[in-house]
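Annotators were shown the component list below and the corresponding predicted structure, then asked to write short factual statements about the assembly.
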Amino acid sequence: MMLGDVVDAVRDANCTPVIVTTELYDSEDTQITITGADLNQTLNEILPQTAGPVIIVMADLPLATGPDITRVVSTQSDMAVAPGRGGGTNAIFLKEPTRFHVDYYGTSFLKHKKIAEEAGLSCEVIDSFRLHTDIDEKEDLVELLIHGTGRSRTYLEGLGFGLTTDEKGRVGVERKKPPSVSSGS
Amino acid sequence: MMLGDVVDAVRDANCTPVIVTTELYDSEDTQITITGADLNQTLNEILPQTAGPVIIVMADLPLATGPDITRVVSTQSDMAVAPGRGGGTNAIFLKEPTRFHVDYYGTSFLKHKKIAEEAGLSCEVIDSFRLHTDIDEKEDLVELLIHGTGRSRTYLEGLGFGLTTDEKGRVGVERKKPPSVSSGS
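Structure shown to annotators:
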C-alpha cells in the first residue's frame, strides 16, 4: 500500500514510475526492474545509463503526494535531496544522473550531500515532513492516520486501527474495531 | 538552548519575540510574560487582546531557522499551522488573532484545523520537517546533530555527543568524548 501511494504520487507529478525491487511485484501499468543486487549497487548501475532527469524515491513514504514530488523535481539546483528520519535519504532528484552515485544506509543524507559537493553539483535540501516521515515503527502510524490521504491510510483504517490519546496527551495507534477489509490480500 | 534557537529564528524572520513561560527566564533583550495558568488558558487570554498578526512557536524546535518562520508568516491564507510529530502543533500563524483560540495537547493539529474551519478561516498546512521535528526523546537528538545549525547543536557537541551508526545502519547518538563546556550553566 505504501509503495502504491508512492507510485501514485510520482505519477501525479507527471513522472513515469519504475519500481526497482528484489521481489516479484504484480503491476499492470508500472515498469518493474527486478534485481539480485543491493540498493546501492543496483542504482549505481542504473544511473550511469540514465540520460534524462531521474528521481529516486523510497517505498515507505505513504505521506508523499504529487505536489511533494513536484516540489523536489522543480528545484533550481543541479539536484535535490529530501532527508529521512534518522539521517536517511528519502528522495534524490538528479538532473544529470551520470554525474552522481548513491550511498544509502547509515547517515546517507550527509554522504549524499558530500558526494554532491565532490561532484560539483549544487544541491537543494527539501524541507518536507511528508517526505521526511518514513514509516518504520508502530508509532510512525500516528503520522499516517493524521496526515495520510492515500491507500495506506484507508487500508490501516479498514483494518480497524485508529488514534488514541492517553491521559498525558500522548497520541498513539490501536485497533479499535474488527477489520473491515482482508489483511491477507 | 532550544528556546534560544527559536528566539533567534523568530528574530531572523523580522518578528519580535515574546517568551511566555511559567518560570523566571533571564533575558536582556526579549520581553517575558510569566504566567501561572496553563498553555491554553494563557494563550486564549492573550489572543483576544492582540491586534496584529501573531505567530505562536513552541520552544523545543532547535531546527527552526529564520527562513522557516518566514515561510509560515508568508502564507496567503488567513492562518497557517505547522504540525508537530505525533499530532501536535508546533507553530500557528494568525493574521487576525481575535478570531482564533488554541487547544493544545493530544491531536491538537486536528483540533486547530477544525477550529479554523468553524471560524471560517482559510488555513495553510506548512510541510516542513524542520518545524515538525520537536525534540523530546534521546533519538530525536540525531536530527539535531544532522540538521541543526544553531546553539543547541553546538551545545550538544560541546557536551561530547556525536552520531553513531550500528551494524544495521541505524543511526544513534552517544557521548564520544568528555564535555568541553560546562553542563551546569
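Statements collected:
1. The mean pLDDT of chain A is 93.
2. The first strand of chain A starts at residue 18 and ends at 21.
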